[in-house]
């Protein structure tokens, strides 16, 4: 079995055009390789249809690879993201669950556009469409790109702050998968479930404790400690939570785009040495590079 060192430059969270990233799976694989990534997973939102392309591209580059996805979950009235790693991407129950989770995005997108029209931003649905790579995966991110391009806002975070978050004109509450369902789909398909970027949820300490406890009770195994959307202080906090809840630690940039993402593929701080990395439990699920034929 190849080495799964704790300080491996693993990047186990990023997005392609199959969800709301701007690069194709092959371009992401090349960027990961160029960025020094030593173990890579593509984790598109609610979708595994980019994984075959990612797997082949990683294999050609000699880049160790894991299957991945990021499932949208509703928990305590908040959207939480659960990353799945190392599952069988052909698992029928997982694929059916993801298809159900994707369902409703188009209706929601029309509602988002109607909300924006009420504040004078017309034609946002049609405006977002050119940014959508997968018709089943219309995301708020695609609306945000359209509004930046039209000059309504100067960057993506301004669009989310002014238009697309709770209480704002283009915000539409949506019911995603259940926490237990998402964890079970991943686990039953042979994978490992991870709480994505925990610092991004607006939970009280009690709600956060409930998320971690229930996630564990459902069979969840890991938490992202080092993330492109975590500060150094947040990484310390969630490193301590990983130890408290006996969770494995994950590491991922959450890269979406060369122009929008703060953290590039492979450009993350190391995991704190006190933690056990998720990849120690996933070594047998990794597609390792094949040796040259004799
Ligand atoms: P959706 O799944 O359609 O609700 O869209 C969620 C996506 O929006 C996330 O995966 C992020 O890529 C993006 N997003 C959420 N909040 C922000 C923000 N403040 N700035 C930029 N992108 C964001
Ligand atoms: Mn996203
Ligand atoms: Mn996320
Ligand atoms: Mn993500």
Descriptive keywords:
294 residues; TIM Barrel; single chain; alpha/beta; DNA polymerase, domain 1; 3-stranded parallel β-sheet; 2 domains; binds manganese (II) ion
Can you walk me through this structure?
The chain is built from eleven helices and eight strands. By secondary structure, the chain is of the alpha/beta class. It has two domains: 10-101 and 177-285, Alpha-Beta Barrel (TIM Barrel); 105-164, DNA polymerase, domain 1 (Orthogonal Bundle), CATH 1.10.150.650. Helix 6 (140-149) packs across helix 7 (156-164). The longest helix has 14 residues, at 105-118. The radius of gyration is 18 Å and the shape is globular. The two termini are 20 Å apart. Bound molecules: adenosine monophosphate (AMP) and manganese (II) ion (3 copies). One manganese (II) ion binds at residues 15, 20, 45, 141, 256.
